[in-house]
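Q: What does the assembled structure look like for these inputs?
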Amino acid sequence: DGGITQSPKYLFRKEGQNVTLSCEQNLNHDAMYWYRQDPGQGLRLIYYSQIVNDFQKGDIAEGYSVSREKKESFPLTVTSAQKNPTAFYLCASMDYKETQYFGPGTRLLVL
Amino acid sequence: GENVEQHPSTLSVQEGDSAVIKCTYSDSASNYFPWYKQELGKGPQLIIDIRSNVGEKKDQRIAVTLNKTAKHFSLHITETQPEDSAVYFCAASLGSTSNTGKLIFGQGTTLQVKP
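A:
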């Protein structure tokens, strides 16, 4: 069953803590993306990776970090420098026709 | 920077009526325009897309039109059903998608279909 999985579904962060959101795909896509969604707003790009071992900052990269050591995986770390991390985080991958497919999302809440 | 404006922000229709959502983009190099449907608490799902070499595309009850001169594109849903109720997002590629695949998203339209 091919697709994109994100875990956990809900994540709670304490002040000063770094947390990591998982994104895995078995679609054999090269490009992967992380978006942040706030209530009543569109999706904003945090980071993207077009190929393994390479990634680029998006529009709102401050306070976030990523790695791309494997084609299937693109984890996002929300660092303590991100002062307003409460949001819905979406991961996507892109096929050869340049269509992006999204995972189910992770909702991050601050304790 | 480049942006996409989407209207209306909310839309309420009676079951069986048509719904139209409009988007305007600023990047004249955009060549790919997808539409996504997002149900509560879930990730967006692609429902239809159009590329700059065509003016209209239809898939059953859903159609998208593109006017590159005016930089407008629209989503048309006919014979709406309660299960069409969701948030709909338009997006436009930032320049040519062959460069980065980056998309700019509209703010979203909450569609409510009343039985």
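Chain A touches chain B at residues 4, 6, 31, 33, 40-45, 48, 50, 56, 58-59, 90, 94, 98-105, 107 (CB under 8 Å).
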